[in-house]
Amino acid sequence: MGRKFLCLAGLLLIVLSSAYVVGAGEVEKLRVCADPNNLPFSNKEQEGFENRIAEMTSRELGAKLSYYWWPHQRGLVRRTLSAGLCDVLIGIPTGYERVLWTKPYYRTGYVIAHLNTRDFQIRSLDDPILRKVRIGVYTNSPPHHALAKRGIVGDNLVQYSLFYDWDHPEEQLGKPVRDLVSGEIDVALLWGPIVGYYVKKHGVSSLEVVPLKGGDPHLPMTFAISMGVKRGNNELKAQLEEVLSRKQAEIRQILEEYGVPLLAVHAPSGA
User: Fold this and answer.
1) What is the CATH number of domain 108-211?
2) Homologous superfamily of 2-106+224-257
3) What is the pLDDT of residues 134-165, one digit of tens each?
4) In contact, 192 and 180? CB cutoff 8 Å
């Protein structure tokens, strides 16, 4: 498990959200420990899909919702959950070893994206066209490592960092999609929720987006997403799972509104 989530370390910087719950038995307060400037996940204006899911969860628990804002690039788990400031992480990879996780409530992953006007259709990383086109990829992400294993390491790779400018995250996180539309790159291998969000936000109808799957258990391309609580807090875990089961249709609707590519949910298998 350790190597698997090492591959996801950079991704966690932009995906994780968390919450803090006070009280035993009935939950009295749901204090969400969220990134203040990290759409499509969360922001201080509460415009992200993690904000929407937190609102729904607090409503179902009959709890008062408030936020503890913490930038997710700066020691998220250590500074929040481990420090006792947060008891729940809203979005973590199922199986994340530092927490007790709920059953997964959605599954998503990396995608292949390119203009639908191009004269190729790419369905896997083994397509020979990838040796000839300009590929945009997150540095040190699973797709980046998978390309390297196939010997695709040359000048046709355009690398993007997940360590974004804190004051202008949308400008940086959206750059691969803008570069794809403008023709700066031919193909992008990116985290699906980010692609979906910018496609929705800017009304981009010219992209073909295909979920990226891989058979290497050490380089998973899809991830089930759970909520996480402190180890031993089985009561809270059970309460959250009850909400997740009861409100699955509403959660799916929220995710679809933000363009999150959704896959069938199943136990993590390193797919």
Assistant:
1) 3.40.190.10
2) Periplasmic binding protein-like II (3.40.190.10)
3) 999 999 999 999 999 999 998 899 999 877 66
4) no
